[in-house]
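Give me the fold.
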Amino acid sequence: MHLRLAHNDKGKPEVFRSFQGEGRAIGRVRTFIRLSGCNLHCVWCDTAYTWNWVGSDFRHERDEPGRPYKFSPAAEMSKVSVEDAAELVRALGESEGVVLTGGEPLMQSEALVALIDVLKRDQPRLKLEVETNGTISPGAELAQRVDLFMVSPKLAHSGNAAALALQPDKLAAFAALPSAYFKFVARTAEDIAVVATLAQTHNIPASRIYIMPEGVTSETLMARGQALLAPILAHGFNFTDRLHIHLFGAQRGV
């Protein structure tokens, strides 16, 4: 069984050790495995090299006249066996947890189950975390193996249609999982009001919701974060920064 892995800036599979930059485990040491492919196409996505292929008609905020922000699958993606992917993790030594991110990892759910089983065989106490956009139900086999789902449903400013990005049955499936927490990317106070409506509709406790400012520079994150603090506090949500942006900038493999 194989996984489609994204590439780092050296053209190798993007498997690396760093600090978790977002969400419930922010600041914790983690090993990251970035998978390629996504069923959403956010206009501000900072991992567009996992899905925005040459020849597609998806738009991105980094598009320029005559120079669309596109990538070649042959240059940006490798097909790697589950055992080889696990070996890349082993080569980095032990860590508290592994984060399966993307793109959208749940597009490869069957292979994820196989990979987790191999990783847990080596380190039974290893924590497994999955970052997902919440449009694909995890299924029982994956759900019982994952310690933390960070579910990031996309709001209107992402450029995705609500019918695709905010599917009630999928959100309900994650809301029913005690291991699932929600991270919403926000730009304005109006976005927080939308999140509050979604939380009420899907019975998601405020304690399981994190709000993260959108941006790929420290300056943007600080400005947006300050503007969002009051409505976040008013609704009782949690705030999460993007620690890796402050530490490393918008780079791959960090």
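Residues 99 and 129 are 5 Å apart (CA to CA).
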